[in-house]
Amino acid sequence: MSDSLYELLAPYLNQPPSSTTAPTTTDQVTTKYLTRLSTLSLSSLTSQEAQSLAQSSQSTVLSLQSLSSRSNAAIVASSDHYASLQETIPLVAEEAHRLRHDIPKLDEAAAAFSTTYSRSTENEMLDRRKRALLMERNADRLSDLLELPTLLSSAISSSAAQGQGSSNVANYATALDLYSHIKRLHLLYSDSSLINSVYAQTESAMQDLTWHLISSLRASNIKLAVGMRTVGWLRRVAPELDATDHRMQSRDGLLGYLFLVCRLSTLVTTLSALEPLRQLADQETETRLQKGSKMPKGTTRNGNAWQGGQQTERYLKKYVEIFREQSFSIVSMYKSIFPSAADGSLVEEVQVPYKSLEFKSSPSSPGNISSSDRSDTAPSALATFPSHLTDLLFGTLAQYLPNVLDKTSRESLLTQVLYCAGSLGRLGSDFSLMLAMLSPETGERSDDSDDDQDKADEDWVEVMKKHRELAGRLEALASGAGSGKGADKGGNLRVKS
Questions:
Q1: How many angstroms separate the CA atoms of 452 and 267, rounded?
Q2: I need a labelling partner for 284 at 20 to 30 A (CA). Which of 72, 241, 444, 459 fits?
Q3: Can you spell out the DSSP letters for 321-365?
């Protein structure tokens, strides 16, 4: 039906003034419209169709105007691009040809890169990159590792500044834990330059710690607990000091010698505080020697030539008191800290140096030991230390005791020395019998030396008798305290009724 209508209307489609091309039957719009016309009545065709076409035309015009207004820029740009398309297409073709020519080179370069930087082969650049990435991932750990020497130095400095308090103990323990950790890292990673550098800084800090610990052993008011902790720390900080040498009889290593040397230094420093009294005693010695040289022949020390000695007595009393306290503290603390020191071997070993002691007027004169007593093996520290202490004490007594001529004062000093000997005797180094070896006073006339020696022997014997009598009374009182026994004024025991 639409074909018949098209043939009927075809002569009218190309008539002027129409400038459009006549539609064909293959056009779907034309076919659809002709099909619609065949369904309309004649009245509709004559009255309504023209109006409907006019409305459709007007609507189409409005739509075209709206579209042109909205898409003006896009249409202009499309027009420009279309105009330049003739020049662009040849350029694209040229670049495509060049790309096709360069693709083999790109493939060769990619293959070479893959071969060069493959993980299966060694490459210096890749190794540096791996190390850089590894360092970046472990930056926090490296920072903590580099801060270890600083933390160790801070702990050591704070412990040295705080003295011997509880916080000091915690700081020393922290420092030793840090040192143990760094030392373990050094053993595990000995080929690492960073670990070696940190370990070197740590060793320098530990030398300071060792110095602080040794200095703390020289403290004047050191207690047994502090001494034991300090020696324990020194064993951890400097284990080479605790090593036993085959040439030493002591099993305590060099730590025993170090402890005794430090405490001896403290003793000498404490005794040096008596320097003003010693100077007064020296003045009395000079005065005594000057008066003694002007004494007429036959005048003894009990004459009127010399009546001084009070300052010397004060000096010797304080000297012996300090010596007794410090020497007993040193030996008892040593035997508590180093229990390997045999109690019975002390007396046996110290008897050898005592055989040939000759006290001079100088307090630092050592005893003479025969060559038969020497040995290639060094004696233990505790075996020779009481001998050195005795040399120090008796050297001072030999120098200043001749200034004290008053019998009561002299007996009081000798009794004090006997108490000192008894104090050390409780630890196995009694030197009370050595009082008889004190030389007679120097600077007297040679004709009176025998009388002086006899007088000194008589003083010593009398002091020993009184000391033993008093010791017996004290022992009787101590033994009878729990059994109801006592002692009378003569020292005889009595039983309570």
A1: 32
A2: 459
A3: HHHHHHHHHHHHHHHHH-TTS-HHHHHHHHHHHHTT----SSTTP
* Rounded CA separation 220/269 (Å): 9
Q: Are 432 and 422 in contact (CB under 8 A)?
A: yes
Q: Is the pLDDT of residue 217 over 70?
A: yes
Could you give the count of Cα atoms lying within 13 Å of 279 in the half-sphere of its Cβ?
4
Q: Enter the DSSP assignment of 248.
A: B
φ/ψ of 299, rounded to 5, equals -85, 130
pLDDT band at 251 (very low <50, low <70, confident <90, very high): low
Given a cut of 50, whether residue 156 has pLDDT beyond it is yes
Of 299, 490, 479, 497, give the one whose Cα is nearest residue 405.
Answer: 299
**368: DSSP letter:** P
318 pLDDT more than 90: yes
Tell me the pLDDT tens digit for each residue of 470-497.
666 556 666 665 454 444 444 444 434 3
Task: Report the Cα–Cα distance between both ends of the chain, in Å, rounded.
Answer: 166
CA dihedral 239, 242, 248, 252 (to 10 degrees): -170
Opening angle at CA 395, ends 391 and 398, nearest 5 = 135
Half-sphere exposure (CA, 13 Å, Cβ side) for 232?
12
Task: Name the residue type at position 48.
Answer: Q
Is residue 349 pLDDT above 70, yes or no? no
The predicted model scores a pTM of 0.59
